[in-house]
Amino acid sequence: MTDRRVVIAGGHGKIAQHLIQVLTAQGDRAVALIRNPHHVDAVKALGALPEVVDLENASVEDVAALLHDADAVVFAAGAGPSGGVERKDTVDRAASVLLADSAEKAGVARFVQISSFGAGEPVADDAEDTWKAYIAAKTAAEEDLKSRQKLDWTILRPGGLTDDDPSGHVTLTAPPLERGTVPRADVAAVIAALIDTPAAAGKTLMLTSGDVTVEDAVSAV
User: Fold this and answer.
1) pLDDT per residue as tens, the chain (221 positions)
2) Using CA atoms, how far apart are residues 76 and 9, in angstroms rounded to an integer?
3) Under 8 Å between Cβ of 30 and 49
4) Which of 145, 22, 9, 143 is nearest to 78 (CA)?
5) Is the Cβ–Cβ distance between 44 and 18 less than 8 Å?
6) How far is 51 from 20, CA to CA, in rounded Å?
7) Contacts of 164 (CB under 8 A, 6+ apart)
């Protein structure tokens, strides 16, 4: 039982919902930052404390106040497939920057950012505009985080996300890594373990399903 306070941006997202359950089961206190007040009961039912805040319009002061006494922050927000090009920037990039600014202001050093395969890499010329915007936003968010000296950041780039049952076995490594998929539940388990792994700070890690247990994969980092 660890009793950490972990604040999750995008707290009603699919990965975040799994993460809340993992954290709660091991004795941590999860705080879910959610935009839609209609999601309050859902995240409460999972075991999290909901905080309603719109990261596209909130100030650093607003968000920093919600990070008070936190031990770690996880950026799990995203505009989603229907978000459009503009919201790829305002959510996937700008909201991450806002959360990092707020973590610095609140004095919360541990920061885990969920990014994506493809971030930091060239995008094919014939790719869809929304994909180009998404990768551009994720890459910019990563670069912003890497520039920060006050945060013990870890960037996690999961492969294609599925809703399969967790296998508990993954491949977790520095880039590059062959493309693959990974259940969202396994991503959540890896994040929960990374939060408490100081050696993961300052690293960018690729994640797919694999043959190594989550515990051993994170320990090997």
Assistant:
1) 578 999 999 999 999 999 999 999 999 999 999 999 999 999 999 999 999 999 999 999 999 999 999 999 999 999 875 568 899 999 999 999 999 999 999 999 999 999 999 999 999 999 999 999 999 999 999 999 999 999 999 999 999 999 999 999 999 999 999 999 999 999 999 999 999 999 999 999 999 999 999 999 999 99
2) 5
3) yes
4) 9
5) no
6) 14
7) 183, 185
CA atoms within 13 A on the CB side of 168: 3
CA–CA separation, 22 vs 195, rounded Å?
Answer: 12
- Secondary structure, 3-state, the chain: CCCCEEEEECCCCHHHHHHHHHHHHCCCEEEEEECCHHHHHHHHHHCCEEEECCCCCCCHHHHHHHCCCCCEEEECCCCCCCCHHHHHHHHHHHHHHHHHHHHHHHCCCEEEEECCCCCCCCCCCCCCHHHHHHHHHHHHHHHHHHCCCCCEEEEEEECEEECCCCCCEEEEECCCCCCCEEEHHHHHHHHHHHHCCHHHCCEEEEEEECCEEHHHHHHHC
Closest CA to 85 of 132, 125, 118, 139: 132
pTM value is 0.96
Q: Of 49, 15, 129, nearest to 83 (Cα)?
A: 129
Q: Which residue has the tokens 């508990």?
A: 168
